């Protein structure tokens, strides 16, 4: 069987557009044998092989030089849609909002802790001013240690964002 067909006939046979026939010929799947003529048997065989390769996960890469970019784009679009859904559900907030909220919470915690020596002096009336000052110093030192630790951790997080291999084990 050495039958040939025109682009419209190939389109009708495969149920595709003539543009797709031209594209498949350009990619080597349809076999062009003359001006506007295609080898039907070779084209069917190549189409079948191409579809098997796609089904096995091999063909698309071989025939589509933009495959990796298309996969990457699809993943980015899916990630964005997932992130947007999480934001809409209230599960995620913007970084500047989180930073503002965290700063407000830290300031409240600090004010509360710095007010403790006075509160303790009110509950234990026999404390001297010196003892209250010592308690203030201990609370201030504890808050400073916490702030230093938070700063170091923030620096580590920033370093990891710049270099994801920081802290990785070989």
Low-confidence stretches: 164-170
Give the CA-CA distance, first to last residue.
60 Å
Task: Tell me, rounded to a whole number, the average pLDDT.
Answer: 83
**Main β-sheet, spatial strand arrangement:** 1-3-2
Supply the number of helical segments: 7
Radius of gyration: 35 Å
| Structural shape | rod-shaped
Give the amount of beta strand, in percent. Answer: 5-15%
Oligomer: single chain
Major sheet details: 3 strands, antiparallel
Backbone structural class: mainly alpha
**SSE order, as H and E?**
EHHEEHHHHH
Number of strands: 3
Helix content: over 70%
List the helices and strands and how they pair.
Layout: E1 4-6, H1 7-14, H2 18-26, E2 31-34, E3 37-39, H3 40-55, H4 59-63, H5 67-88, H6 95-123, H7 129-162
Antiparallel strand pairs: 1-3, 2-3
Helix pairs in contact: 1-2, 6-7
